[in-house]
Input
Amino acid sequence: MSVKLIRRLGVSLAALVLSSGLALAQSKVTLAVGGGSCLCYLPTMLAQALGEYEKAGVNVEIVDFKGGSESLKAVIGGSADVVSGYFDHCVNLAAKGQHLQSFVVYDRYPGFALVVSPKHTSEINSIKDIANKKVGVSAPGSSTDFFLKYMLSKNGVDPNSVGIIGVGLGATAVAAMEQGTVDAAIMLDPAVTVLQGQDKQLKILSDTRSQKDTLSVFGGEYPGGALYTRADWIATHEKEVQALTNAIIATLKWIHSHTPEEIADKMPENLVGKDKALYVAALKNTLPMYSETGRMDPKGAAAVLAVFSQSSPDVAKANIDLLKTYTNKYVDAANKTTGMK
Output
């Protein structure tokens, strides 16, 4: 074989490799998030701040919604490709014949707290006292709404007796609680810590921001935030799914090797807010919530199904195949390259 031919083949091969790499790099994925300021979604937002999506070879556009139900609608409707939201939607919609699948889990716990408004502390001392009250959730039909209904049913309160009001997850939720426009709300950090910073006597009726509290409420670990989408989209966009998974796994590794202060420094200012010290304090409370592997624990998925079966007759009778609601295939592939277990 001549030297010229060898050179031509080398150039052609290099061009082919470059073009295929650019094809993936130019693949655009629209990622719908159910409230980017919430620390429950931090890995998704931090991955963008760290440039991990680009490093993995995918161009991600993040669209921030008020709550998980709205981001879910975007994917179902086709205006977004992937949801960064709570896994429980995959289980809930499986009962309705819609096949959604999570492919990387970044929250080991849901991080929900049922908090009483400082304006209504004297009226509410237990979950039973919430009957006939107005309670804030991120958005009706979101995971915060599901959690509220579960806690009400568990404590003998008719969920239909409570007025559900969408208040978002960040500053709008804090404002609603401060002003007393809702009697209580399902909140997450950093909003919970921000409110605690303003009211040291803040009353929290249920808290799933730690493993201990999560086990107390659910009887086991309960997966929260994950990337999920339609199963048919995953099947036809495996390169993009793997790239997104690689980015989240790399971000989780980064989170667990850096301090809360270092993490806060990387986050966009609009998500950190005016009081950085409170944000860091909230991060310290939240760090144990983030997964170290990105894998779905089958027991955790089973816990989600058990919770929904208790509060939703449709889920209870649907005979859901949990193995179709998640996959660890892409996480396992990513972990082989990052050294995580």
About this structure: The two ends are 47 Å apart (CA to CA).
